[in-house]
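Thread amino acids onto this structure.
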């Protein structure tokens, strides 16, 4: 192969061996172990969860700092940029499947199991032998007495037109502000970029604060908890995991705002910012489906 043909190939940066994957694996193990004990009420081992979170924060911050430094040193090529894009696409695809599983569980329980337990024509025996007093209504606001030694447990269902509606408006507006910021980046309007990226991050913080307030209200005044039957478990799983994603996205936006203030991005080289925008818009779309199927219907 001639020297001229050799120059047609792009360089592909291969980083040195790192201990970060091992450190991340240890952090995930600690998180799983600590969270399992916390859910079971063993508060004496809850520190393991926080230790695992600290390990993960250290691993991720170190990894991403290295990625930023390598990018600014000019070590990445167009091929590496394509790899980043493919990786982010597959990551969001996995997140779609993650939430699809929980929405599928909601559909299965609400549409199929409720019908079986309610004594449909093909499942009369299930109703008669398991829960003869069960009335298939949604949202469920009580568990049959058979599950509690004859004493049914009751709670209130979460309404859609209070804090959930406000949070919906906040997230939809945040997509608008982030789009303005993204266009400002392309148009080299640094001041607008920093301002609207910061506004979007602030809206994410407000969303999380309101969701915490909603959870406190549910637990203290409505009797709605993770133990509130199928309705309570699906409600907190879907909204809780979504809240976790909003937290990650908000941290992403805060970091992007700081990087914008340092002048890190250009119209031709800003995939890190674009990836954050993809993730945030994905989180917004999930919330729209969640608001419809969990709160309204």
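Threaded sequence (297 positions):
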């Amino acid at each position: 192969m001639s020297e001229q043909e050799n120059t047609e190939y792009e360089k592909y940066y291969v980083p040195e061996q790192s201990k970060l994957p091992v450190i991340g694996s240890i952090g995930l193990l600690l998180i799983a172990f600590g969270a399992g004990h916390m859910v079971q009420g063993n508060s004496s081992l809850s520190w393991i969860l926080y230790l695992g979170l600290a390990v993960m924060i250290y691993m991720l911050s170190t990894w991403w700092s290295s990625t930023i430094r390598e990018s600014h040193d000019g070590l990445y090529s167009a091929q590496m940029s394509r790899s980043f894009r493919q990786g982010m696409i597959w990551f969001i695809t996995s997140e779609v499947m993650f939430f699809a599983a929980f929405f599928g569980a909601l559909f299965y329980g609400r549409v199929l199991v409720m019908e079986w337990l309610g004594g449909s024509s093909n499942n009369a025996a299930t109703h008669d032998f398991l829960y003869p007093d069960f009335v298939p209504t949604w949202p469920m606001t009580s568990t049959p007495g058979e599950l509690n030694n004859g004493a049914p447990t009751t709670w209130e269902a979460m309404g859609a037109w209070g804090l959930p509606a406000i949070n919906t408006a906040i997230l939809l507006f945040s997509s608008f502000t982030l789009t303005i910021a993204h266009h400002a980046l392309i148009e080299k309007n640094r001041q607008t970029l920093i301002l609207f990226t910061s506004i979007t991050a602030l809206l994410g913080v407000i969303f999380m604060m309101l969701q915490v307030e909603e959870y406190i209200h549910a637990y203290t005044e409505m009797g709605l908890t993770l133990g509130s039957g199928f309705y309570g478990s699906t409600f907190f799983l879907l909204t809780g995991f979504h809240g976790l994603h909003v937290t990650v996205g908000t941290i992403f936006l805060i970091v992007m705002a700081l990087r914008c203030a340092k002048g890190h991005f250009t119209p031709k080289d800003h995939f890190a910012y674009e990836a954050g925008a993809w993730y945030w818009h994905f989180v917004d779309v999930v919330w729209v489906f969640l608001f419809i199927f969990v709160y309204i219907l």
